[in-house]
Design goal:
970 residues; 30 helices; 6-stranded antiparallel beta sheet; 7-stranded mixed beta sheet
């Protein structure tokens, strides 16, 4: 009897000790440190609700289990152990794993988690209510089942018979789960048990080596022996108790957990068989297990395996392409799964080596045996392991771009967003989520002012930014302006004081980009404004001061930015910047907007999507007049307004039209058909129009010598083709054919997919790109150079491009461009000569019209870019000198804002390099923060090292006191 009482006392103490530990952990650790920020993040929409619910469950499990254990099983120690090892411990462990280790669940991992949770619930029901069928017919009932328990609510709702069948199904799965979980836990229990035994003998050996005597002697010698002895013995006792109980939990739990679940499943099966017969019990159990295994097997087929295999080689014909397009959903699912594998799986099969290292280093197993153990572990853990390699992430991203013709983060934003949200770490979720949805910086206020000067105006955009994250951030804009506009300035400031703002410097594009990127890395204030297309610009500003929620600071809390440009008047008024893309910044109905002196209010979707109105109406509506500017060096630039009647269409010309057949063009298929029909009706009859059908990798491009012979309905849009690749295909197909103009019909192609490859061809005819659906964010410099050097341009429909080409050809040779309702012409006279001026022409040398010179300088640079030069660097320097003199942004000259002398010295050094005009493609895309691999390790400490960690901790106090005493004596 005494032995039983001692045994019962030990069982009770184990239960209450662990419950006290669990309650302390959740209420003193998880709730205040993780729970409160997690709830706030869920309210803010940063983290999914499921993680907050898991956190609540983590807190509730030990609380509820403690109460139930006290009320129902306090006098039944064995039942306490069943309750602890069968319900509380596995459920608490499951919640911790879901909260801290498992991120986004896959269908396979969801099945395992749901099955374990279901089995734990079934076990708890069996303990609390016993068998749910007719109990008078059942002989084998446990003590807990014979207690006068009330029937559960669900039993009264669905009836005894259905409850019995449901319980049989759950307990049949319990057999599977019990074996699976027990086997899995044994991989850790075996080495832990052996380390425990080895640690015990090592401790005995270390004790009899008397290495502990010297530290205790030092404590006695330096007068700290009483406190040190008490503290040391206390920590030793606590360590041994905690270590012993921990070992009891992890060593005993696998076998006990498996035994409890198998025993419970067998008991319910016998009870069901006694009531309904063995045949029904066997059929029911096997049916449930077979159905579960069938689902498990189906979910084990990870989609990326088939997707990567299908895209391993480019399709060689339209039939294969059509087959792949029909399987787009499956391919998308597979590529996204591979890209997000670090978020969806604990590890790859290949990189999961912790069991191998554990058994090799702890048990000294040979490599082959340790790998065999690892392989068997991988089989059991297959729902949580990725069937591939970590290199599949980059491979999937590349294949996604080639197949879907867009960057993966853009094409599957919601999937990426949910993956990076799936974490209990608020800051990790915020960083990852904001890399995709780009809501890092709030546009607090915006003000647009316009100063009209007759046919042109000065426009200023002033914005104030507030950081919403605890880290320094960068604002990133892609926008477009009329081709004739001239950007004349960009400034940064910590406040709205114009006298304290940081001014810009006009620098070669490559040097400016290099210094800007270097300063961002060094976390110093710069801003960079670049022209990356005939109409396209890119603006970046860094750093937006970090948000400080709790720590007051005297530093800046916001960033102020000013942007100015000059623009010619058009029939609609003054053109505003048109947003192509934004990164990191967002605005809403709380953003204060003042446009042309009037407060503007937006609401709902309009408030979130509208950056600026497309035009502001001009106050003065006098007729447009010709303008002229005489610039240094005898350069004369003239602008003559054009009426609609002045535009014409070409006749007697020979044109080449290159048709982009990329996947994204499918969205513009209607516009493609209308464009080709327009060509047949308005151009092909009076001109020779050849059609070049570009093609993605795998199939050759085609030449259709008369566009009227082409059927647009048969076009199959597939893959991705960069503009440079289209031009290469055109050069290969045309042979010795010559054309007056080359047109490329494309869409808003993905600038993120561009690269820095050099284009190994020259196009003598003007190259025009017609972008259906809108302009792209920009071009790489190689493509932009081809457009600029060939005297080409960009447009959004074929009619506009044809009219500009024909009107330019009909003008005299001095014409630089026909753009934005004006004909721009260029003439050069000796500096000593006098330029004849007609009466209606307003001259820029007049005091009231000097502001027109930057606009004229912008056209002068366009004229200079068309001139052939044997020394390209000299030509670029000449164009940059004009931009620097008149302080304008051009495709070759950028504006950079610097704040200190060190930055200016770096810029000076960069401007002296021969590659000062070489600029790299920058998409603005940010790399997602990837979670660590918890199942990959480089090594595991030896058994004696585990022990020495504890022994060493015991002597830390003595060593510290000894060192302190030595310093005092010294």
């Amino acid at each position: 009897m005494k032995i039983k009482q001692v045994f019962d006392g030990i069982l009770k103490r184990i239960f209450w000790f662990w419950n006290l530990s669990f309650l302390s952990l959740v209420y003193l650790g998880i709730l205040p440190i993780i729970g409160v920020p997690l709830i706030m993040a869920t309210i803010d929409g940063i983290i999914p609700l499921e993680f907050t619910l898991t956190m609540a469950a983590t807190i509730a499990v030990p609380t509820v289990c403690t109460v139930i254990g006290y009320r129902r099983f306090s006098e039944q120690p064995l039942e306490l152990m069943r309750w602890f090892y069968g319900v509380e411990a596995p459920l608490f462990l499951l919640c911790l794993l879901r909260l801290f280790l498992l991120r986004e669940l896959t269908p396979a991992s969801s099945q395992i988690i749901a099955t374990i949770a279901l089995c734990i619930a079934a076990f708890s029901v069996e303990m609390l209510y016993g068998y749910l069928g007719k109990r008078e017919n059942v002989q084998n009932i446990s003590d807990s089942q014979t207690s006068p328990n009330k029937q559960p609510i669900f039993l009264r709702l669905i009836g005894e018979k259905r409850s019995a069948w449901l319980q049989l199904g759950c307990h049949s799965l319990m057999l599977v789960v019990g074996i699976w979980a027990a086997t899995l836990l044994m991989y850790y229990a075996v080495p832990v048990g052996l380390v425990t035994v080895a640690g015990f003998f090592s401790a005995v050996i270390e004790f009899f080596k008397f290495t502990w005597v010297l530290p205790f002697w030092d404590m006695f010698r330096y007068g700290a022996w009483v406190w040190g002895l008490i503290s040391g013995l206390t920590w030793i006792a606590l360590f041994l108790i905690f270590f012993g109980l921990t070992c009891s939990l992890f060593v005993v739990m696998p076998s006990l957990y498996g035994f409890l679940y198998i025993h419970s499943g067998r008991k319910i099966w016998q009870s069901f068989a006694a009531q309904y017969g063995k045949n029904k019990a066997i059929i029911g159990s096997l049916g449930v297990i077979a159905a579960w295994l069938a689902i498990f097997s189906a979910l084990q087929q990870q989609p990326q395996v088939a997707a990567l295999k299908m895209l391993a080689t480019p399709p060689a014909n339209d039939t294969v392409r059509q087959t792949l397009l029909a399987k787009s959903d499956m391919i998308r699912s597979g590529l996204v799964n591979a890209y997000l594998s670090p978020y969806r799986y604990l590890s790859t099969v290949r990189e999961n080596n912790h069991i191998y290292e554990l058994y090799k280093n702890t048990l000294n197993l040979p490599d082959g045996a340790a790998q065999t153990v690892q392989n068997s572990y991988n089989f059991l853990m297959s729902p949580f392991l990725y069937q591939g390699s970590s290199a599949d992430v980059e491979k999937a991203e590349k294949l996604y771009g080639e197949f879907f013709d867009t960057e993966l983060q853009k094409g599957d934003t919601e999937a990426v967003k949910h993956a990076v949200q799936s974490t209990s770490n608020r800051e990790e979720a915020k960083a990852g989520l904001l890399n995709v949805s780009e809501e890092k910086v709030w546009l607090q206020s915006q003000e647009v002012t316009v100063k009209e000067n007759g046919d042109w105006a000065d426009v200023q955009l002033y914005e104030v930014y507030k950081n919403q994250t605890p880290n320094l951030q960068e604002v990133f804009y892609y926008f477009s302006l009329p081709e004739s506009a001239a950007v004349t300035g960009v400034w940064l400031g910590d406040t709205g004081d114009l006298n304290k703002r940081f001014v810009f410097t006009v620098s070669p594009r490559g040097a400016a980009q290099q210094v800007y990127n270097q300063q961002v890395v060094e976390r110093v204030d710069p801003a960079l404004l670049e022209q990356i297309g005939p109409k396209q610009y890119r603006l970046r500003a860094f750093p937006i001061p970090a948000k400080r929620e709790f720590t007051p600071t005297d530093g800046p809390t916001e960033m102020h930015l000013w942007l100015t440009y000059k623009v010619m008047r058009q029939p609609q008024g003054w053109a505003m910047p048109v947003l192509a893309e934004k990164r990191n910044i967002f605005w809403d109905q709380n953003t204060r907007r003042t446009i042309a002196g009037k407060e503007v209010k937006y609401s709902g979707k309009e408030a979130r999507e509208t950056w600026l109105p497309p035009f502001l109406p001009a106050v003065a509506q006098q007729p447009l007049t010709a303008q002229q500017a005489i610039l240094p060096g005898g350069n004369i630039l003239s602008a003559k307004p054009l009426a609609d009647a002045n535009y014409s269409l070409p006749q007697g010309k020979k044109f080449a039209v290159i048709l982009d057949t990329s996947r994204s063009m499918a969205a513009e298929s209607k516009e493609v058909k209308e464009t080709l029909e327009w060509l047949k009706a308005n151009a092909a009859g009076k001109n020779a129009v050849d059609l070049y059908v570009a093609s993605a990798a795998g199939m050759p491009p085609k030449l259709v010598e008369d566009v009227r012979n082409f059927d647009a309905a048969k076009v199959r849009f597939y893959g991705t083709i960069q503009l440079k690749d289209m031009l290469q295909q055109f050069a290969q197909l045309r042979g010795d054919k010559s054309y007056d103009t080359v047109f490329v019909v494309s869409d808003r192609h993905s600038y993120e997919l561009s690269d820095d490859r050099k284009l190994k061809l020259s196009i003598s005819a003007p190259l025009w790109t017609v972008h259906l659906g809108g302009l792209p964010p920009g071009y790489d410099d190689v493509t932009l150079k081809v457009i600029q050097d060939s005297a080409g341009g960009v447009a959004t429909d074929m009619k506009e491009a044809m009219q500009r080409v024909a009107t330019t050809a009909a003008s005299d040779q001095s014409t630089v461009s026909v753009v934005d309702g004006y004909v721009w012409s260029y003439a050069k006279t000796p500096q000593s000569g006098k330029t004849a001026k007609s009466a209606p022409v307003a001259e820029s040398k007049n005091a009231g019209n000097d502001g027109f010179k930057p606009i004229a300088a912008r056209q002068l640079i366009t004229a200079l870019s068309k001139q052939k030069s044997s020394n390209q660097l000299t030509q670029l320097d000449a164009m940059h000198a004009v931009a620097k003199n008149f302080k304008v942004v051009t495709p070759y000259s950028s504006m950079i804002v610097l704040v200190n002398d060190a930055q200016r010295e770096q810029l000076k050094a960069a401007e002296a390099k021969s590659d000062r005009f070489d600029r790299e493609v920058e998409s603005g895309k940010e790399e997602l923060t990837k979670p660590n691999n918890p199942l990959n390790v480089s090594g595991v400490p030896e058994p004696e090292e585990w022990l020495l960690l504890g022994v060493g901790a015991i002597g830390l106090l003595a060593v510290f006191l000894r060192q302190r005493r030595a310093k005092m004596v010294g």
